[in-house]
Amino acid sequence: MLEMVKYLAGSVGASGFGSKSTAEEVTEHCHHLRSITAIITGATSGIGAETARVLAKHGARLVLPTRSLKAAEETKASILTENPESKIIIMSLDLSSLDSVRRFVAEFESLNLPLNLLINNAGKFSYDHAISEDGVEMTFATNYLGHFLLTKLLLSKMATTAKDSGIQGRIVNVSSGIHSWFSGDMIGYLALITTNKR
């Protein structure tokens, strides 16, 4: 409870920043960002869009994987209005589909770009019960399995980039505390999210 109060009050943590710190404040002295390539999932709204805007402002090349090409084009246009020199690549990705994740990684690797930063930000929550094409509950497929596979498949690219550039790679997983609200039947929930397609 005390941690939640500190968070809500914006108390500064060990990093020197708190919940009230802006993305621009956090990146103010990150001059190395102009030489990196970043993949940001969920960059068409909210935290992802703000992250993309601020990284572009600092000169990072952005790769924005998205289910909605229209929404990504709008995000790109907004960023380019503020930072016309920004380098932004939009690519198709549906994190609820493991085949889509594999296709995205293959297409990204075919661009022969470095990869310094992977921000796993996309998230989905639905009250309706839906199953992915892989037979997994949709929220779990999107928020966990898709990002897990994406990260696993991009690790070697990040390691190669770090070795070649001398810039250590970073993987950032953005999440929510909403999972802590769950107080139901864990066994039943696990059975639900792992339903196999028949």
UniProtKB/TrEMBL annotation:
Pfam families: adh_short. InterPro entries: NAD(P)-bd_dom_sf, SDR_fam, TIC32. It comes from the Eukaryota. PANTHER family: SHORT-CHAIN DEHYDROGENASE TIC 32, CHLOROPLASTIC-LIKE, SHORT-CHAIN DEHYDROGENASE_REDUCTASE. This is Short-chain dehydrogenase TIC 32, chloroplastic. It comes from Dorcoceras hygrometricum.
